[in-house]
Structures are given as C-alpha cells and as structure tokens.
Design a protein that fits this description.
Layout: E1 2-6, E2 9-13, E3 23-28, E4 32-38, E5 44-51, H1 59-75, E6 81-86, E7 89-90, E8 97-99, H2 112-115, E9 124-126, H3 127-138, E10 147-152, E11 156-162, E12 165-166, H4 197-201, H5 206-209, H6 217-225, H7 229-253, E13 257-261, H8 269-282, E14 292-295, H9 302-312
Parallel strand pairs: 3-6, 6-9, 10-13, 13-14
Antiparallel strand pairs: 1-2, 2-5, 3-4, 4-5, 7-8, 10-11, 11-12
Helix pairs in contact: 3-9, 6-7, 7-8
Length: 319
Amino acid sequence: MDRISFGSGSFYALDFKLKTNYAIGLDIGGTNIKALAVTPGGRLLAHLAVPTGDTGGRGWQMNVQRAKAELERTVKQSLSWIGLAAPGLAAANQRAIAFMPGRLPGLEDLVWQKFLKLSQPVPVLNDAHAALLGEAWRGAAQRAKNAILLTLGTGVGGAAMVDGRLLRGQLGRAGHFGHISLDPEGAPDVARTPGSLEDAIGDCTVQARSAGRFASTKELVAASQAGDPDAQQVWMKSVQALAAGIASLINVLDPEVVVIGGGIAGAGAALFRPLKTYLNAFEWRPGGNRARVVPANLGDRAGAFGAAWNAIHFKDQPQ
C-alpha cells in the first residue's frame, strides 16, 4: 500500500488492476475526516485522514468533498455506493443529520446526496452507530448478532445491535450510554442526567474528579501506574463506575460482546484488567454465560467502515 501526501493528512492506496465495485465511507469528526474505499467483501482499497478544517464556518464541507474526490481519483473506477457518518442524531430517512447544535455549522439538515451532486442516495448515520456497524463488519464484533459499543473519550458515546439490527430508537438517540444514571442524587450532566456514566469516566470531568490535579485521563492513568495513591483511587473509582454501567447495559440488552473504543480505551491493560475484576463482581451470568468485553479493532476508521457498509446495504433496509 503506497502512501500519498494529501494536504496535511495521510493517504494510502493499493495498486488497482481489476475492475471492482466499491463503496466510499466518510466519517466527519470535529478534528479529522476519515475516509476510505472498500469492496462489498470488506477489502480496503484506499484510505485517508485529513483535518476537518474550519469548524467555525462551512469550509469543512468542501474538505469532505475533496476527500471523496481524491479517493475516486485514486481508485479510478466507477463509485457504486457512498455513505457518511457524523456526530448528532440522524434523520429517520438517513438523508441528513437532523440534530447537532453547536458544532460543525451547516451540518444540520444538510442533504449530502444533493450537496455532493449524486444520483444515488448518501445514507447518513450517527458516528457511534456507524462505528458499531464497522466493528460488526470487519472488527471486534464480527459474527455477533447482539453487541454493544462504548466509545470512551471526551464524553461517552455508544451504540447497540439487537438481534442483528442496529438499534436506532424513535429519534435516533439509542446508544447514548454516557447518559445513563449511576447516581440519582448526582449532579446533572450535559443531557440533564444525574450522576451519569459520562461524568464518571469521561475526559470532560477528569479535572473535577481529580480535584484539579490532572488535565486528562491519560495523565491520570500515567500517575496511577506510577504509584500515585490519589490517582489510583480516582482511576479505580472511574473504572468501577464503568463496570457498573456495562453490567447494567448487559442486563438490559443481553449482548454477546461489548466493544470498548475511544481514546480512553488506549489505556490498555490499565483499563481492561481492573474492569474485568469489577465485572466479575457485578455481572449477572446465568448458567455461567458472560459477555465478552474487548477493545475495538478498527481504531478511528470504524465509523468510515460502518458508513460504507450502511451504504452498500441501504436499499435492503426497511425505509
């Protein structure tokens, strides 16, 4: 796979000799746009990551368009499908993001099929929903019909697959696991949930949880591993809260696998070892059955894989 320069981002492409149908998946984040070209069988043809750019205006929209065009130029074959993932609540018809206030101006109600001037539909998904579809297709949740994804970062996002179908809900809110309540007397989070999982482990509250000592979870974990007793106490309390949240979700959704992604998952064993210990105490395991709890496999490309899969199978879904 050859590396090609693309602005200040990175682009990778394979050598193309055989004609093939392919899909483009685009995942728009506040920092980067991740994009890839993939066959219906899941073979990666090319991928790139570029800065989102001007998130205060609408320059980011043109960067999405340019990323798509660069993939098409590299693959040099006719595009068959294209799908998109972005933060916010997707419209029921998947034509646009219906609700995402305060970020990426112009994202709400932007019909991507029209903007990209395409004849085929461009189905749009919430980014966490897309990440789970990607992990189910080519990552850590392959062959699972019931799966949960939790993304641990600045906040806590997520998605659920139930009996082989992505759980969307009435408004597209399904999977906002960061906003489940662990303490009804706790302070309300950004979604008005008292004592939420997001506030218990999200990077957004680490300064408050550590009495101002640490600016990020990465710093907190490093201090904990170095033997700082106060950091260890804060970190273990955070992981305990995560385990309580996961155990609760297991009781509600009965998954085969729980996939943990996001920046905090990069803590590796410092997260997964104590998490296992707490789950051994908290999880209800009828007949000895337990849900597998595993790290995500696809990294920051999961959403783009999921967006591509969703595009390929869009016409097969009930509308």
